[in-house]
Design a protein that fits this description.
The chain has about 70 residues and is mainly α. The chain has one domain. The protein is about 55% helix and about 0% strand. The protein has helices at about 5-25, 50-65. It is elongated and about 60 Å long.
Length: about 70
């Protein structure tokens, strides 16, 4: 008979496997010197000009995935 520790280990393994699978599906977007959302000129090392653009980009990508459209 399994105890609570065994049950929690199985749950942790399940969540870890799901997180790894999700992370492998995420496509990495590289910066080209412009904000990925509003196209404003930014530093080459950055992807977004501010947190609002980053959040809006994430929301837009999530909506596209929910609607069955291809995201970046």
């Amino acid at each position: 008979m399994s105890d609570i520790a065994d049950a929690s280990d199985k749950l942790i393994e399940t969540f870890t496997a799901a997180a790894i699978a999700q992370a492998s599906r995420i496509q990495h977007v590289y910066s080209n010197g412009r904000c990925l959302f509003c196209d404003e000129v930014i530093n080459q090392e950055e992807q977004f000009c501010n947190t609002d653009c980053r959040d809006d980009f994430d929301k837009e990508q999530a909506a596209m995935i929910r609607n069955g459209r291809r995201s970046l």
